[in-house]
Design brief:
The complex is a heterodimer of chains A (about 100) and B (about 500).
Chain A lengths: L4 H21 L3 H25 L4 H33 L13
Helix pairs in contact in A: 1-2, 2-3
Chain B lengths: L2 H26 L4 H22 L13 E3 L4 E3 L1 H20 L1 H4 L6 H20 L3 H19 L6 H32 L4 H12 L7 H18 L7 H8 L2 H26 L4 H24 L4 H25 L3 H32 L15 H4 L1 H15 L5 H16 L2 H29 L13 H19 L1 H15 L6
Antiparallel strand pairs in B: 1-2
Helix pairs in contact in B: 1-2, 1-5, 2-3, 2-5, 3-5, 3-11, 3-14, 3-19, 3-20, 5-6, 5-11, 6-7, 6-11, 7-9, 7-10, 8-11, 10-11, 10-13, 11-13, 11-14, 12-13, 12-18, 13-14, 13-17, 13-18, 14-16, 14-17, 14-19, 14-20, 16-18, 16-19, 17-18, 17-19, 19-20
The chains are: A mainly alpha (about 100), B mainly alpha (about 500).
Chain lengths: ~100, ~500
């Protein structure tokens, strides 16, 4: 286990960047949803790392991480519901085929 | 909890309880559309009453004028909170009035609509009073998650779900970015309290402490996430599709509710938490504002679909409101900075009335399922439905900013503040005026179509439902009263200025 806060933050930033890349590069709505979850996990890693290395943030950080998990779960629920709704209409999960509104 | 603490929380508790109550009523007596709308509208009126009873609004209200902090300062009810709560409740009320006449012919459930809408409004109210990063984030999510559901409310309609998924994907992407930024602000300042973050940053701004690179990065991420939420260019791509696809009353709500709420979040984050380093961000906001209004207006010029046109125009209005933020950050005189914040609040107020009204007319035209939202469907409305056409003209003139309407005073407050700010801010005032002239073109095009084009051969008469009629009267009266009756204008100006001054440091 590394003893440096920066190492954890770099890892979190790396995860966040992977999630961002996945969101921008993937064309499948489910994969984009997974990328967003990865970004939120990176956020949680950063929160927990701050809480571990800054004594005054200890308890606060853990609580915030729990809240972020709950929000991420709620977001995934809503997201999957919308993905299922559009899949029933269009029979495809690929977002670049959702293009019926263009000027 | 003391009596005053209950009083301060009452509006929020009433709205959340009301949302749950409607779910329960719908469970016991399913499918009572009008009943749900009545409960929703009456409940919102009660919540408005509770907000006024709590205050502090001018001399009104049971709370002390300086406001009241709850739960160790994570939620504060001050003049700003009271103003924003009333505004959000007003938006909820108008949306509830406009919805049934659109939803019932399409067999969409009104109780679910009202309940989901009220949850979103509860989130907006949390944003209005939150003084803690965690509360602000939770309020934001409580605001946007029901918003995604509302956008996809017509779930068998391909356009509605398509708008919803675009709104959802970009919305949660931006939430993640905003949250990542907030975490760095939290980690490096060591607190989630907005005021304490301000104190720590004040030390950095005065040169007593260095600015950690990661903290700067965090603030940049916060700015990006916030720009997504208010739909500022270049983070606006979700707006046109989400607005065009959503059921029309939802579009009306989405174009004002989440936007004003996101500005409430921005005010708390930028003016209070990041206030001490405002010299570092106001130029950026000013440049974004100029680009946002110009791109929004230019894109709106070429639209044939009125919902898409109003979507682009809402981007332009975001730009106008952002000028208020730039003034608040960039003005050296605190009085001028306060009038910048006042501009944000006043414009939000005026914009809510006129934009909801315009969307209500669009929804009324679409009363019959199958009517598209093409601008050509307005042809001959001046003869087919004279009163509806007059109402639409009023709202459009107000959106242009022509006196004597609410929109005129909204623009006036922001432009005057920008001119008083001097320097680059004066330039922004010029950009607003040029943009307002360009915007007149596409708004007035609709008026021309309404009065100077013959209706289509097969045009059916427009029957406006009772709910819509009531809502149009409220929205129209607000738009006119703020613009025409000096006493009302003065009261609104005083009230917004007083609310603006509750922001720390003004």
């Amino acid at each position: 286990m590394s003893q440096s806060l920066d190492a954890y933050l770099l890892l979190a930033a790396g995860l966040f960047a992977i999630g961002t890349f996945g969101f921008l590069a993937k064309r499948n709505a489910i994969a984009m949803l997974m990328s967003i979850e990865l970004m939120l996990n990176a956020v949680n890693l950063a929160i927990v790392a701050f809480a571990l290395f800054t004594p005054s943030l200890g308890a606060q950080g853990s609580v915030i991480a729990l809240f972020v998990m709950a929000v991420a779960a709620a977001e995934a629920t809503v997201g999957l519901a919308i993905v299922i709704a559009i899949y029933r209409n269009r029979r495809t999960p690929l977002v670049d085929e959702y293009a019926s509104m263009r000027e | 909890m003391t009596q005053n603490e209950w009083l301060a929380l009452a509006p929020f508790i009433i709205v959340s309880t009301l949302a749950i109550l409607i779910v329960v009523v719908d469970m016991i007596r399913p499918g009572r559309d009008h009943l749900a709308a009545v409960i929703g509208a009456v409940g919102v009126l009660v919540a408005m009453g509770a907000t006024i009873a709590a205050g502090p609004i001018g001399g009104l209200g049971g709370l002390p004028p300086e406001g009241m902090a709850l739960f160790g300062g994570v939620y504060v009810r001050d003049g700003m909170t009271a103003f924003l709560d009333l505004l959000f409740l007003g938006i909820a009320l108008l949306t509830i009035l406009f919805a049934p006449d659109y939803l019932i012919p399409r067999k969409l459930p009104v109780p679910e609509f009202v309940s989901v809408l009220l949850f979103a409004v509860a989130g907006a109210m949390l944003l209005g009073g939150g003084r803690d990063l965690l509360i602000l984030f939770l309020g934001l999510e409580l605001l946007v998650l029901p918003g995604y559901l509302l956008a996809g409310f017509s779930k068998r309609d391909g356009l509605s779900t398509e708008g919803a998924i675009k709104y959802f994907l970009l919305g949660s992407f931006s939430s993640a970015i905003l949250l990542f930024g907030l975490v760095f602000v939290f980690g490096y300042t060591g607190t989630t309290n907005v005021a304490e973050i301000g104190d720590r940053l004040a030390a950095i701004a005065s040169g007593d402490a260095p600015l950690p690179v990661a903290l700067g990065m965090g603030m940049a991420l916060v700015l990006t996430g916030a720009a997504f939420k208010i739909a500022a260019v270049p983070f606006h791509y979700w707006t046109p599709d989400a607005y065009q696809g959503s059921p029309t009353p939802v579009t009306g709500y989405l174009s004002v509710g989440p936007k004003v709420a996101a500005f409430a979040l921005v005010l708390r984050l930028f003016m209070e938490a990041l206030g001490p380093v405002r010299a570092d961000w106001w130029v950026l906001i000013g440049v974004l504002a100029a680009i946002t209004m110009t791109v929004g207006n230019l894109a709106a010029l070429g639209q044939d679909n009125i919902k898409r046109m109003l979507a682009y125009s809402s981007i332009a209005h975001t730009g106008y409101i952002m000028v208020g933020l730039a003034v608040a950050g960039g003005a050296t005189d605190p009085e001028v900075a306060a009038s910048g914040v006042q501009g944000i609040l006043f414009y939000g107020f005026a914009y809510a009335a006129m934009n909801l009204g315009a969307f209500a007319v669009v929804a009324a035209l679409q009363h019959r399922p199958g009517v598209t939202s093409q601008i050509s469907s307005f042809a001959g409305l001046g003869r087919r439905a004279p009163i509806l056409a007059v109402a639409m003209t009023l709202f459009l003139l107000s959106l242009v900013g022509i006196p004597p309407t609410a929109g005129f005073f909204g623009k006036a407050v922001i432009v005057i503040a920008a001119v008083e700010g001097g320097g680059l801010l004066t330039l922004l005032a010029v950009v607003i005026m040029l943009n307002a002239a360009a915007a007149a073109f596409y708004y007035l095009r609709v008026v021309v179509v309404m009065y100077m084009r013959d209706p289509a051969e097969n045009a059916k008469p427009v029957d406006v439902g009772g709910w819509t009629r009531l809502g149009l009267i409220v929205a129209g009266a607000a738009t006119i009263a703020i613009g025409l009756i000096p006493a009302v204008t003065g009261a609104a100006l005083d009230w917004t200025l007083e609310a603006a001054k509750t922001i720390a440091g003004l």
